[in-house]
Structures are given as C-alpha cells and as structure tokens.
Write a structure and sequence with these properties.
The complex is a heterodimer of chains A (281) and B (267). Chain A is of the alpha/beta class and 281 residues long. Chain A has 11 helices and 9 strands. Chain A has helices at 2-18, 22-27, 42-47, 63-70, 94-105, 139-155, 173-192, 207-210, 233-240, 251-256, 266-279, and strands at 30-32, 39-41, 77-79, 111-118, 121-128, 159-165, 197-205, 219-222, 262-263. In chain A, strand 4 and strand 5 form a beta hairpin. Chain A is globular and about 60 Å long. The N and C termini of chain A lie far apart (55 Å). The mean pLDDT of chain A is 93. Chain B has 12 helices and 8 strands. Chain B is α/β, with parallel strands linked by helices. In chain B, helix 7 links the parallel strand 5 and strand 6. Chains A and B meet through helix 6, helix 7, helix 8 and helix 9 of A and helix 5, helix 6, helix 7, helix 8 and helix 12 of B.
Chain lengths: 281, 267
C-alpha cells in the first residue's frame, strides 16, 4: 500500500519534472540522464556510484564522492590542504570568483590529495574536482599534486591520481603552464624511485593536464566514454572546419589508438586499483 | 622610442619577416646537419633538428620552424607541431644525452597542432613525455624563445637549465585571441588580454619563469639580425661553458629546483 502511494507520488513528480529544465532538476531530487534521457531519482543514482542504472552512463563525480568510493572508510587523511589559490597575474576579479565558488561549492581547490588505504593498501591518492573551475590547473593544483608526489616518494607509497580537467587555469596564465613542467618533473623523480603510479582519466581530461601528469602513469586507466584529449573538440572543429566523428577522443577511441591501458567501470575501479597495487608490492 | 606595449610585441613576435629558427641555426652554428624522423610515424616539418658545432663544440639543435610566406607556412604547418615533431625532438635530445652534447632549442609556435591526426597519435602524451624527460636529461639545455611561445606546444621543447627570451618574443599559456575568447567571451579583446596576461620577456623574468632576456635592436630582430646573432652567440658561449663545467648531479639539481619553484616567490 505504502509502496503504491510512493509510486503515485513519484509518478506525479516524474510528470512534473519532465517539464522542468535539466538544470533545475539538479537542485531537486531528480536528475535526467543526458545519455538515455531517463529521469532518475537522485538517491538511486548516488547509491549506484553515480552511474545511470538504466544505460550505464558515468556521471561526473565530486572529489568528495570519489574519495568515498575509492578510499577505505575513515582512512583518508588530507595533505596539502593549506595550499590555496594565489593570484600571480593580479588578474581582475579572479580571487573574488574563487572565493564565491569556494563558498558556493564548499570546495577549496580543483584537487584534493591525501594518504589513504585502498583495500588495506596504503596509497597516496589525488582526486581532481571538476566542480571547481572545471578542474583547471593553476599554481595551487600543481603544487598540491607535486606535494602528493613528494609524499609518495618520501613514504615509498604507490600514487593514484584521478584526473578531470579542462586544462590549465587561464587566469594564472604562464604560471599555470609551468605547473605542467613542475608536476611532470616530480613524476620523473617518482619513476626514479621505482614507485607505482596509476592515473585514471575521467570525463573530461583535456589540455595541460593531459599534456602532463595524466599521460605519464605507469598504468593509465579510464572510465567508459570519458572525453580525453589535448585540444578540445571545439578547437579541433574550428581548425579543420568539419564536425568530428562520433566517439572521437572518447576512452574507447584512446584505447583503440594505444594511449590507455584499460577502461574500467566505476563499480570495478576500487578493486582493480587495489589489485594493481598488490601486484607491485 | 615610445613605450612598446605587450600587444606591439605580439605583432613583432609574429611578424612575417622576423627571423625564423632555421635562420638562427644557420647563422649561429657551423656544420649543421639536419636529421629527420621520429622513428615511429613520420617527419614533422614544423620541427627541425640536427647536429651542429658552436665554436667547434658539437651541440644538438632543435627548433620550431614557421614559414615566412604562405607557401613555406603550409609546408611547415605554420610552426604547429604534430606529435611526431615532439617525438623527433625527444629522439634527438636522447641522442644528445648519449653523446654528451649540449642541447639548444629555438621556440617559435602558435601552439601544438589541434588536428584530428594529432589527437589520434597522442599529442598530449608526446608533450607530457618531452617535458618529463627534459627535466632530467644529463646534458646542459638552453631554450630560447625567438618569436611566439604558445602553450604546451612551446613547453614541449622548453624545459632547460636556462630558458631565455629575445626581448620582443612572447611566451604565454595560449594566444591573446584565444585567451580573450575564453575569459572575455570576445576574441577581439586580444589587445586587452595581451596586456593582462603577462607575456613579455620582462614579465616572465619578473615571474621567475625565464632566466634571462637577450637584447634586440630597435624595431625588432629583423632590423639588425647580425647584432642579434652576436648577442645570442655570446650568451650561448658563456652559458654552455658554465653549464658544462658543472657536475651532472649539480646541473640536474639546479634544473629541478628551478622547475620545482615555478609559481612560488611571486609578487
């Protein structure tokens, strides 16, 4: 009986929400999957690791949710939290924008790093967050990633980085570009120390992050159907003056062209990472 | 002379008759032998490289090559390398390391080529690998931005013990036009963007991104090319000598320290 009532309410809600714009729905309890167009109850989506129960589309994840999915419960200890956005170019309005974003999203920067256990394996974990200026890399992101790499070297731990990024942070100009050098040089040190480095490319990973630490993992995994590339699709289309074929720069495309090792679904991600770490012990 | 704005320098850096990489290579060095191909896919004409001598010392030289006219530019893809260009550069740099030759690179590009083939062949991976490897090559590396240094396409041959700029060269995260279209949603605001982006040699020196500035004659390098060649040659001779006298460990330590501090000590 109760179930019927709930269903009725849900149905009512569904017809109502079907008429509401997708953006409005994000604030509410329902989300529309932009792949299969199915209306999903938000809680169901989160219970399903933010993967559409209908078509398997992997929704974008905040760093907080990602860490919850990957790190063993209660083991994540954040590092580099004190490293915050600077304004190297004195770019008008930048710090203000960052500040209001921080208040709105409760996120401090576009990456969160720490030490945690993954199925009991102590690991340095860095997770980028697309909700913060599209996961763009400025000085603070570069520094946090570098500090995480140094921590891995210092404690002889494996390093796992989940990437999501629109590229370098424009508002920090050339200083952002140099973060590519800083992070990549640190990865070199990690390599010299013989430590395992796994990167996971998620939707979207582009620009300066693709052209630095994201592409330098010993093992490079990707979530299904993520957009991964150096130049963004729009820039390419403008350059070649034609539409890109369906699936261009998708994880599947990169796998076919030999640039990633494996596509892993979210439900298997933690166990796959744990297994890889165990194989390198 | 009245004050030169950042936008003036953008125009100067892109001037068609501004000397390009191969002119510098031919004038600064002797016995340049060009070497081709990345041994994986092809030979990218947007990047030239080879062996030469500088006062009888063998060196490896690499440069991003723009054209001076439409025909040359088409041949050189407007100085926008594909992954095979960066992989050729890396191959030659590894060769330099094997034979203990200093490396000198000339940077002049509107950016890495954003084409379909470039993506299929791993533009991001190619750039990332170059940057990583250059951070620890066991020979001295000097990088000179001679014109336009734009984005990862410039950085991919731009990590070294000394990174220097010609006085009127620019070095930026992307073109002022691209920057304006992203941040101001209006690419016609490129002029304004150029002033705010901090892209001139002086700006980058202040930000500790580059080590030195090499003087140009008034009006730009094309006005008195001989003088510019003399200035670069002098700079290279002095610095290669100094870098060569350092122990490898010291060289690499200093290079890493510089890279590690990018973005620190500012303001």
């Amino acid at each position: 009986m109760v179930i019927d009532k709930v269903r009725k309410i849900n149905e009512k809600e569904e017809t109502r929400t079907k008429n509401v714009k997708a953006a409005d729905m994000m604030i509410g309890k329902w989300v529309k999957c932009d792949q299969c167009k199915e209306i999903i109850y938000k809680e169901d989506l989160h219970k399903n690791l933010s993967v559409c129960p209908n078509c398997g589309k992997h929704f974008r994840l905040s760093a907080r949710r990602r860490i919850k999915q990957i790190a063993d419960e209660g083991t994540f200890e954040e590092i580099g939290k004190e490293i915050l956005t600077q304004d190297p170019l004195n770019f008008e309005g930048y710090l203000k924008k960052v500040q209001s974003l921080k208040e709105k999203t409760k996120i401090e920067e576009a990456v969160k790093c720490g030490i945690c256990e993954i199925e009991g394996n102590r690991t340095v974990l860095a997770v980028m967050d697309g909700n913060f200026l599209m996961g763009s890399m400025g000085e603070a992101v570069g520094e946090r990633i570098t500090v995480a790499i140094e921590k891995a070297i210092e404690e002889k731990l494996p390093l796992v980085i989940f990437c999501v990024s629109g590229g370098a942070r424009m508002q920090e100009g050339i200083v952002s570009l140099m973060q590519m050098a800083k992070t990549s040089a640190a990865v070199k040190k990690l390599n010299e120390a013989g430590l395992l480095y796994i990167t996971i490319l998620t939707d979207p990973t582009t620009g300066g992050v693709t052209a630095s630490f994201a592409s330098l993992g010993d093992i490079i995994l990707a979530e299904p159907k993520a957009l991964i590339g150096f130049a963004g699709p729009r820039v390419i289309e403008q350059t070649i003056r034609q539409k890109l074929p369906e699936g261009f720069q998708s994880s599947e495309f990169l796998l076919e062209h030999g640039f990633i090792d494996k596509i892993v679904e979210r439900k298997d991600m933690k166990s796959t990472i744990a297994k890889l770490i165990e194989l390198h012990k | 002379m009245s004050k030169i704005t950042a936008w003036d320098r953008v125009l100067l850096a892109r001037k068609a008759d501004r000397p390009k990489a191969c002119e510098y290579i031919n004038e600064i060095f002797e016995d340049f032998i060009e070497l081709h191909g990345d041994r994986c896919y092809g030979d990218d004409k947007a990047i030239i490289g080879g062996i030469a001598t500088l006062n009888k010392i063998p060196v490896t030289v690499i440069g991003e090559q723009k054209g001076k006219n439409a025909k040359e530019n088409i041949e050189r893809n407007f100085g926008m390398p594909n992954p095979e260009g960066y992989r050729k550069a890396l191959r030659l740099m590894k060769q330099a390391e094997k034979f203990n030759r200093p490396i000198i690179t000339f940077i002049d590009t509107p950016g890495a080529y954003p084409g379909m083939g470039a993506e299929e062949r791993g533009q991001g991976e190619a750039i990332a690998r170059n940057i990583m490897e250059m951070s620890s090559l066991k020979v001295p590396i000097i990088c000179i931005v001679i014109g336009e240094g734009s984005s990862g396409g410039a950085l991919a041959i731009g990590v070294g013990d000394k990174v220097v700029m010609l006085e009127n060269a620019i070095y930026s995260i992307l073109s002022p036009e691209g920057f304006a279209s992203i941040l101001y949603k209006d690419s016609s605001k490129a002029k304004e963007a150029a002033e705010n982006m901090k892209i001139t040699a002086k700006d980058l020196k202040n930000l500790k991104i580059i080590d030195d500035i090499i003087k140009e004659p008034e009006g730009g390098a094309q006005e008195d090319f001989e003088k510019v060649i003399k200035n670069i040659k002098k700079y290279l001779e002095k610095n290669i000598k100094e870098l060569k006298s350092m122990k490898v460990e010291e060289l690499l330590e200093k290079r890493y320290e510089k890279i590690r501090n990018f973005g620190k000590n500012i303001n």
